[in-house]
């Protein structure tokens, strides 16, 4: 089945395709066209922001517990359509089916969490300096939110924005990645079906350029109050600069070069398992994917040999077949990935199992399942000998490539884990709890794992990073409420006379 995708502004599909028509293809079989996508121009982004602005006051009037019921219905609908949505994710972006099911479950978890938040959205009562006066705080919606998301988590990560934004009384303009347009459309349809009014959630199918221009127009017209963006550091920086001009601080979730430290006292099998999952799962296309493993010198050779064996034995190929990883999301990702390989190959020991670069009939991989010639598959690669001087140490490759480096002392490990500029996720494998606590204390990453991989966030913990990984904003759990509401204070004086703060304070 081929999906037809177009922008939907206040319930009206946009058939203009000012930005042209794009074919979204199954990366495991490029002959399979998943969707024909009518791409909008910048004017549609502006129209969507206007529609969201018009719908916002009515949506905000609906009591938060009732908005929570809409979110609950969305969760139940997603659950009822779990397999279908997971199959679509696997077909459109090539994520292994088990991980796609996990991704859909993450939406359900998010809805479950925010259903309850609809009954909480607490404010506070605060004592005043003066008698007969009471102070209060309230959370108020920010207004119109513009959410721009990436193809690698085409459903769960959008839900991290959409669900709390809607719950808090905001309206939304959502632009999914073009490469996951059909998943975007399917999720938006479930939200409308659950009772989110049409103008409250507006879907824009557009490329990055039209979106950026549209955001600029809408921000200038005062139609957007908060931008949420998940994607590259480069685009995040541009969005941040644009928002700054309008005195806004976006919610950013950007790249990572996530380190995994293996201490000599670690359980090496556990560390190998964690490195395999976070380095090569989803073909390394998570923002939380493992970048470099730093291994204490005395166990380096043993770790590397077990890691190389595990990678050699891993099954790669058709993502519906229970593989460790499937294709890269797009041929452009593969081209960029091969450029990284060109960079590293002359200087390091590279461990691919049977080859490096694209998996083809001429450059095959042992145990590969699927049709290599029709899909965008690449060999897993381990690059040994990475030091802080290497480009690879600080370059996010967004593919199945893991660097390995060594260190002697714990202090060196911390410096290596912190020195690449990113600060999203970091892991340490150790059997000594004091190493774990010291690592947590000194590591700049927003998310720390102990004896667990760098990936695998849960829906109710703060998610986000520092440095090149973001501006410190956090998603998920109660912490995201600070992105989608603003604090309003109120003072209420019942003294029957003007009481002046600071001047009329009671003296003892
Ligand atoms: C991302 O790659 O943008 O923790 C998000 C994880 C996933 C989310 C990753 N649950 O790896």
UniProtKB/TrEMBL annotation:
SUPFAM superfamilies: ALDH-like
Residue intervals of the Aldehyde dehydrogenase domain: 24-489
Enzyme class: oxidoreductase
InterPro entries with a match to the protein in the record: Ald_DH/histidinol_DH, Ald_DH_C, Ald_DH_CS_GLU, Ald_DH_N, Aldehyde_DH_dom, Aldehyde_DH_Superfamily
Key words, A-Z: Oxidoreductase
Gene3D superfamilies linked: Aldehyde Dehydrogenase, Chain A, domain 1, Aldehyde Dehydrogenase, Chain A, domain 2
Coiled-coil residue spans: none
EC number: 1.2.1.3
PROSITE patterns: ALDEHYDE_DEHYDR_GLU
Keyword Repeat: no
GO MF annotations, alphabetized: aldehyde dehydrogenase (NAD+) activity
Enzyme active site: 253
Protein family (similarity comment): Belongs to the aldehyde dehydrogenase family.
Protein name: Aldehyde dehydrogenase (NAD+)
